[in-house]
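Appendix B. One record, verbatim.
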Amino acid sequence: MTARAGELMRALSAVATVMPVTTRTPDQLDRVRLPGRPHRFAVAANGGLLFIDGHVDVVWSRQVRRRLAEVASLNEVWTYAGRATHRPWVLRLRSVPDLFCYAEVDRSQLPTDWLKQATEWAAERGWRVALQGRKLYWLPRTLTKSAAVREVADRIDAGKVLAAGDSVLDVDLLENAAFGMHPRHGDLFASGWSAPHVAPTAEIGVLAGQAILEWFLTTAQEHAETEHDPRLLPDFPGTCK
């Protein structure tokens, strides 16, 4: 982050409900330290885990288990994915217990026809395959970031959700936000994805993150100025990748 981005994050956390949302595991998320007030809410494992004040929310976890019961089991997908571990393009296969799995791959050697077959096989079982960076994810379609974000928004009676992300795994989050932004770099930008209510930054690299925070803060402050209007709700969650 730039020094300016750090200042913006601190200012944003003082006027808005900021919620980190990621596909990372809880341990990976725990290594991330953002400036500003401690975040009361956080989402890990692509929506599989909701943390409130640092603790897993058991109510949300029960909802997730019900959603996962609607699709094929992780064990079935793990077995299928495991057949590829001896292939030269697969470096290792890992799982996020009870939720999903992913393979670290050499993209330069990953056959297009194999990826197509794997995608079709997963879709028939209610799962999806997503290639992000050097990781090939196997995710249940019922496991989404946007559902976890909506759960928090409903609990705090939020009127709007702003979102930002740079990954193809952020699409459902951005699609379900009131407004969103994504940086002009990364796999999501390279994919050509777009939506009417989601804008790319003019900047790239670290300055794109700064621009997104400036947008978050400006919009949150504008919202705060209208809090006297009873038709508007006070909490304004912004989610960041």
